[in-house]
């Protein structure tokens, strides 16, 4: 019997792929062969000596002590691309929220409860406070052309935006094979100087921590709108606050609220919902479970 420990709720359509005559699955289980998790932070956890694999039902692995696992011969899997469509749709929603104050408008509309026959007239009077702008014709800069960045680029292009892209780890030649909707630029300065909207879609690593900082904000146009559905740590929050106060950044939409950003004006905070769709959760769970099975039963390693 293989023992699987789940450290978060994992979509049942994935978990049911483990044949129960060969696998025991529980959130607490002694001597697990593998751990399957989502966002549980494993850094302070003692790694059981029985452990052979850790599978993240998601893309980022910054909640897993990858180096420590590797030293102990534990294989770490993730599920790149499996939730990319969910995150793409969230980025597009974030961009639309940054271009019009839908949230303010919805809250304002609620204040009209009780106005009876006056609602129509009050709507006509108040709606001008919520005039926004369209995204068609605006320039979206995509930083990072992985699975999510490419999908965002293609969707934005379908919305008739001009899409420009840059990936610090990819040549233009290779990137062209990923999406023809994007005009590739060679450097971050060229990219940021043209953008009305910026979306950052790179993993959080020691190299990318605080990537959007004072220097990068200085390269941007005044009034730029920034979308971060990748990781909060990619943005230097002290520098962001200054950039917002100086009018450089008109809006920052983040899927990673924290104490700093929640207090800032012009920030739209979403509680890490990018991949929280039934479809994404199922896709990630299936990919994670299949990888664990293939490794435990056959020794095969994919996406580690
Ligand atoms: C990811 O790393 O795949 C995303 O942050 C989504 C998530 O795990 O909730």
From TrEMBL:
Domain D-isomer specific 2-hydroxyacid dehydrogenase NAD-binding residues, every copy: 125-274
Keyword Oxidoreductase attributed: yes
Transmembrane segments: none
Pathway annotation: Amino-acid biosynthesis
Molecular function via GO: NAD binding; oxidoreductase activity, acting on the CH-OH group of donors, NAD or NADP as acceptor
Alphabetized UniProt keyword annotations: NAD, Oxidoreductase
Annotated D-isomer specific 2-hydroxyacid dehydrogenase catalytic domain residues: 20-304
Protein family per UniProt: Belongs to the D-isomer specific 2-hydroxyacid dehydrogenase family.
Name of this chain's protein: 3-phosphoglycerate dehydrogenase
Lineage: Bacteria, Pseudomonadati, Bacteroidota, Bacteroidia, Marinilabiliales
